[in-house]
Design a protein that fits this description.
- The chain has three helices and six strands, in the order ββββαββαα.
- The chain is α+β, with helices and mostly antiparallel strands.
- A six-stranded antiparallel sheet has the order 1-2-3-4-6-5, covered by helices on one side.
- It is globular and about 50 Å long.
Length: 130
């Protein structure tokens, strides 16, 4: 993992980081709790190892673009902020299994299921690119 783990920390006195969920090229995603509302959320925090200014601009641009999306196959953005010098974005928490887990369990999908999943993915991508 790049940078330090934020599990157990409090972001902006609002978000309690509960556990690391995933990691990508731009940052780490955690399951967190919005304290005042006692609501489970996902928080993506930019990697500490990314170049500060360029990385922050790219991360913020991504958050702003994602916040404009309203589609059943696109995650909703709730908030954006800085933790120390690292930007973060708060998203709705989607519960369930990811596609990789489903494929490992099933081995492979039949044509109908594969088309159904691909249609959902492409629907969200088409909306994002519109």
């Amino acid at each position: 993992m790049r940078g330090s783990d934020l599990t157990g920390q409090l972001l902006d006195r609002r978000y309690k980081i509960e556990e690391r969920v995933s990691e990508g090229a731009m940052g780490v995603v955690y399951r967190a709790t919005r304290l005042k509302l006692d609501r489970a959320v996902a928080v993506k925090v930019m990697h500490a190892s990314l170049p500060a200014e360029d990385g922050r601009k790219r991360f913020e641009r991504e958050a702003k673009l994602m916040a404009k999306l309203e589609h059943p196959h696109c995650v909703s953005i709730i908030d954006y902020g800085l933790h120390e010098t690292r930007p973060y974005v708060v998203m709705e928490l989607i519960r369930g299994r990811d596609l990789h887990e489903m494929l490992v369990e099933a081995g492979r999908f039949d044509k109908e299921r594969a088309v159904e999943i691909l249609s959902q993915v492409l629907s969200g991508l088409a909306h994002a690119h519109d």
